[in-house]
Automatic annotation (TrEMBL):
Gene Ontology MF term list: isomerase activity
InterPro entries linked: IolE/XylAMocC-like, TAT_signal, Xyl_isomerase-like_sf, Xyl_isomerase-like_TIM-brl
Ligase as UniProt keyword: no
Residue ranges constituting the Xylose isomerase-like TIM barrel domain according to the UniProt record: 82-269
Identification of the protein by name: Sugar phosphate isomerase/epimerase family protein
Keyword Isomerase tagged: yes
Phylogenetic lineage: Bacteria, Pseudomonadati, Bacteroidota, Chitinophagia, Chitinophagales
Superkingdom: Bacteria
Keywords per UniProt: Isomerase
Length: 280
């Protein structure tokens, strides 16, 4: 058990020295690999993680975690923000060493919402939206993709979602559309909807633009979330699948377990993922 603690402490590069990393109960056998062959994917944060924090507090947590990429949510930068507001918030992130690499998740239930989302992405200066357009808006969304050259990564939201519960439902809607229409794979929601995340990566790699990573405690519809590494998602298999398909997007942690006091849980999750990347 002490070696497990040492593993987490060692691999949580750049995290605050005062953070504690509780012992994790799962998958200790995964760490017997050759650490001289490290797999590296860029780690980001899904903005929803910081629902209860303002921009400044979110930046401070990310700096402690040594994570420098974020998908911005509208509670930090509203969709109807003025150009001055956008400039101000982007400067805050830049000054904190944080790259805003995309925006979303943005829900699109009307043509006006689609227009707003693409205009917002353009003004923020990103080339991708993580979004959820209704089925009847997919043709219109495709038109906007072609007009603006801004990609859309459709996010699956689990068995509760009537539109896109799992990655297959996204794939079925976009596979014959413009190649700039793809998937933001939420691995926790995918598993709750019955799809193993590593299999989803292999099946849908051609349109895999972004990822939200988390963990869940069981392969069940109503499974609760937990720190990455404490649940049932096979992260070594997931990282190996990403390596196999030569994934070049972001893997963004979306931590939802204790959202009013998330830092230690995020740190454990990020440290676990970094550790797996060092050992697969």
């Amino acid at each position: 058990m002490s070696s497990r603690r040492n593993f987490i402490r060692t691999t949580a590069v750049g995290m605050a020295g005062t953070l504690s990393f509780p012992a994790i109960s799962k998958a200790s056998a995964f760490y017997a690999g050759d650490s001289s062959k490290a797999t590296t994917f860029s780690i980001g944060m899904a903005g929803y993680t910081f629902l209860n924090f303002d921009v400044a507090a979110s930046i401070e947590m990310m700096k402690k975690l040594d994570v420098h990429n974020i998908s911005v949510k509208d509670f930090h930068l509203p969709l109807n923000s003025s150009d001055e507001k956008i400039k101000q918030v982007l400067q805050q992130f830049k000054d904190g060493g944080i790259n805003v690499y995309t925006v979303g998740v943005i829900y699109m239930k009307s043509k006006e919402a689609v227009d707003q989302a693409f205009d917002y992405a353009k003004r923020v200066g990103v080339n991708m939206i993580v979004g959820v357009p209704n089925y009847d808006l997919l043709d219109y969304t495709e038109e906007k993709v072609k007009q603006t050259n801004i990609k859309i990564a459709i996010h699956n939201h689990g068995p509760e979602d009537k539109l896109y519960p799992g990655p297959k439902q996204v794939w079925d809607q976009i596979k014959d559309r413009d190649a700039r229409m793809g998937l933001c794979l939420d691995v926790g929601h995918a598993l709750r909807a019955g799809t193993e995340p590593d299999e989803a990566v292999k099946l849908y790699s051609k349109r895999l633009f972004d990822m939200h990573i988390k963990d869940v405690v069981a392969r069940e519809k109503n499974a609760s979330v937990t720190e990455i590494g404490r649940g049932v998602i096979n992260y070594p298999a997931l990282i190996k699948a990403l390596e196999k398909v030569k994934y070049n997007g972001m893997i963004s942690v979306e931590y939802e377990k204790n959202m009013k006091d998330p830092l230690v849980g995020i740190a454990e999750s990020v440290g676990y993922v970094r550790g797996v990347m060092k050992t697969v």
